[in-house]
Amino acid sequence: MQLKIMGLILAGGKGTRLSPLTRERAKPAVPFGGKYRIVDFVLSNFINSGIYSIYVLIQFRSQSLLQHLRDGWQFGGLLQEQFIIPVPAQMRSPGETWYSGTADAVFQNANLIEQSKPDLVVLFGADHIYRMDIRQMVEFHSKKNAGVTIAVIPVDKKYAKEFGVIEVDKDGRIIGFVEKREDAPTMPGDPTKVLASMGNYIFSSELLLKMVYEDVKNPESSHDFGKDILPALIGKVEMFAYDFQTNRIAGDPPEGMPYWRDVGTLDAYYEASMDVRAIDPPLNLYNRQWPLRTSGYSDPPAKFAFDEEQRRGQAIDSMVSGGCIISGGIVKRSVVGRWVRVHSGALVEDSIIFDNVDIGRRAKIRRAIIEKNARIPEGAVIGYDLEEDAKHYHVTETGIVIVEGHRSPVPLGSITV
After folding, report:
1. Tell me: the pLDDT tens digits for 318-376?
2. Does the annotation list 197 as a binding residue?
3. Is the dihedral of CA 184, 127, 395, 20 positive or negative?
4. How far apart are CA 187 and CA 355, in angstroms?
5. How far from the centroid of its chain's Cα atoms is residue 322's Cα?
6. For the chain, which domains are there?
């Protein structure tokens, strides 16, 4: 079956709970895994699944995201139906406002759907770390002849207040939708878990347009799919839950379970970063059949310098990106971004280091996130005395220290006068 599919990616999130990492950038633009950004996961899922007509809806603090999309996600323009186009908030609502919810974001860009007339609209968020073959979800949607399909994943009941929770019958048909409530219904046969919505939807385009046009006229609506539109559709249209646990990725062991993490908090972001650098990672970035794509940097290989006692450059159980020089320092169980310098005698453990960070001689860093362009002076100690760290840096409840960096300079062209 040939289906015309439009991809809509909601990438306008503030990511307030990830501050200070989101002080200068939208959540989808936050670095992850050394050389990547969070948005690279959903974009790679689309491209690897054969979906090439993609609009990325952006809003808050979008400059970093726009630059990343320009540098890493532009097609050559040879085929008109293959594109990744960032769409800023254009204030197309009656009140000329910014997006006031997920449904309002689609309403304000309904013209994109109307002029392309796709059979299906694949509407995904850009905030999560996961891999997914979206074709399998499209096939499920088509076989069920559904108007709406929602990707779901079982999570522990104690997290019910953080998700939209789906209730289903034995055939997977959605019979209930509860948004972020502690008393959400549990899964049939397992009172310890709930079925959480992943915020990934497939709609028939006609139904989607009808829903958002009706919703914008409702003054009581918060214009959100999870809070307003989807609960109101139950019993009126065919809605099904797609079990993400059945999704399989080419090149992965068939018995492996799919990985998905909501990195909405600093602690969750840190834990997901530690997952990818693990010896046996639950999320394998080294699968050539399902590449995680990003900007194509022309960085030189990472370099490890000196082989002397007390001055040996090495990285253990870590991921080290291009352009780095580990010059007589030691990195353990960490994720290191591009063009990082770790000088002699320095020790970095259980940490996330963003691009262009310089770590001085004999500095000691533990359980920290060091932001882009930060300079750690010689002999500095971070992550060992949290009370002292809290006087200078942001410290999470679980003791992760966030050291803020600096803005990157932007080179400009010059003219001779």
Report:
1. 999 999 999 999 999 999 999 999 999 999 999 999 999 999 999 999 999 999 999 99
2. yes
3. negative
4. 43
5. 22
6. 5-276 (3.90.550.10), 303-403 (2.160.10.10)
Does the annotation place 99 within a ligand binding site? yes
Q: In whole angstroms, what is the distance from residue 316 CA to residue 118 CA?
A: 49
Cβ–Cβ under 8 Å, residues 35 and 285: no
Beta carbons within 10 angstroms of residue 109's beta carbon: 19
Cα 14 to its chain centre, rounded Å, is: 12
User: Taking CA 157 as the corner, what is the angle to CA 153 and CA 124, rounded to the nearest 5 degrees?
Assistant: 30
Q: For residues 24 and 282, is the Cβ–Cβ distance under 8 A? A: no
Strand pairing partners for 130?
260
* Cα angle 346-349-352, degrees, rounded to a multiple of 5: 105
180 is in an annotated binding site: yes
Residue with tokens 């699968």: 287
- Length of the chain (residues): 417
- Phi, psi at residue 140, to the nearest 5°? -60, -45
Q: What is the pTM of this model?
A: 0.94
